[in-house]
Amino acid sequence: MSTDTTADLDALVATIVAQRSGFDAIAPATSPGAGDEALERLGTLRGRGAFFPFMGSGRGWGPFVECMDGSVKLDMITGIGVQGFGHGDSDLLRATLEAATTDTVMQGNLQCNVDAVDFMDALLSVARTGQSQLAHVFPCCSGAVANENALKVCMQKTNGAPRILAFAHCFAGRTTTMSQIGDSAGARDGIALSTLVDYLPYLDLTDPEGSADAAMAALNECLRRYPSQYACIVLEPVLGEGGFVPATDAFLRPLLERARAAGVPVWFDEVQTFGRTECMFRQQFLGLEDLVDVLTVGKMSQVCATLFRADFNPRPGLLSGTFIGSTAGFRVGRCIIDRLRSGDYYGPNGRIAVLHKHFLQRAKSLMSDHSKAFQSVAAAGGNMELAGGCGGMMRLTPFGGDKTRIIDLVKRCFDAGLLLFFCGHGPFHLRMLAPVGVLEQSHLDTAMDVIGQCIGDMEAAG
Question: How many Å apart are CA 161 and CA 425, to the nearest integer?
């Protein structure tokens, strides 16, 4: 890049940052109704309207984002975990602008620029820690496709074994096959079932030993019933859609070692956990690198990918794709990896762990102030903690996990300037995928204040 181009980009980034730096608090609409026509068109074109009336203006700063009506929201769901560095970050903006000066928008499997190679190299370098034997990485455009590629790699490795081991309440994406692996009835509605999946119970944090015994018993029964029939065991080290339940090494290691001993490959789905817990990869935090055969990442990484050991390297023809990612995605993804690697995000006293500790402290205070809204929550296999998750994956469970009231609360929070969402399959929960790259404790305080205000309004309404 020429000196003149670099200076021009510096000036452009500075100009854009100056325009966006005023977004530092929740603000009401300045042009009520602006964006309504776009939202109506969205519903018509897509066939279903938006969950809440969010239509972004394209401007934002840090954890704050502007809607077309001029209102400013505190974004604590970040596009279901994609904008880990929030909105308008100057480093990511510059990487995007640099990408725009190159010759192509999309990188391909047949032809790619060095941007793709640099991203792949950076991703593999941060994944290979401890006793990891990951050797190769194949990028793609979505987490669901990364998971499809992982399954194909595992199936080829096991000579076409037809069955899959998964965990109850898991989520894997919304392709035809991933919808069948994910434990959500709604995602399978109307789909011809063609994938053989057996579910193991996940960790119950209120009964870790009992749930571990139950999972091992279920695994042994599956292996007895279908010997040499499993292509893989797939797991989220923190349940995502299933309620932000973090697994422990004590729960997972015996199960994965048993599966490995039976010839079943181990696939870690870290599409949602990548970057946002106490280590860059959750399996690193759990010390399970030695048991990872295949690993999938996405969301916060911008470009999604499947990583695998050398002995899982597939034969020609299995993995391909016209697009493997956008030039901007590769450059921004590389920038994000570098920021995460060089920053103070990880470890027991890192930024992410401290943020989650602060969340739990605020949640405790919130539950004390609204004790009627926070009663015990029954779940399959036991009772759930009322606040949980890990790192930037934060969960609250008011109103007994009742779906109708949780959705009402999510929409009230939106009207009050806070973007969050829900998860779970019953009970249901408030879900936050916080922009951990830029979030401050004061932002988290604001979010918890809004939640408390809205819960109070619901209590007053009866």
Answer: 29
| Pairing of the two strands 163-167 and 196-200 | parallel
Alpha carbon distance 94, 90 (integer Å): 6
Residue 292 — φ and ψ, nearest 5°? -90, 115
37, 57, 174, 342 from 64: Cα distances, Å: 23, 12, 29, 24
Size (the chain), residues: 462
- Cβ–Cβ < 8 Å for 451, 430: yes
pLDDT of res. 160: 98
Tokens of 396: 């609250």
Tokens, residue 198: 């057996």
What is the reported pTM?
0.96
Are residues 421 and 77 in contact, defined by beta-carbon separation less than 8 angstroms? yes
- Residue 349 carries which side chain, given as an amino acid letter? N
Beta-strand runs (E) in 257-328? 266-270, 294-297, 304-309, 323-326
The predicted model gives 22-29 an average pLDDT of 92
User: In the numeric block, which tokens belong to residue 72?
Assistant: 């400013």
Would you state the pLDDT for residue 45?
Answer: 97
**175 three-state secondary structure:** coil
* The token pair that represents 134 in the structure block: 């990951």
Mean pLDDT of the chain: 95
What are the structural domains, with CATH classification, of the chain? 23-90+346-461 (3.90.1150.10), 106-342 (3.40.640.10)
Whole-number Å distance between alpha carbons of 77 and 297: 18
d(CA 197, CA 334): 35
Gap between the Cα atoms of 65 and 74, Å rounded: 7
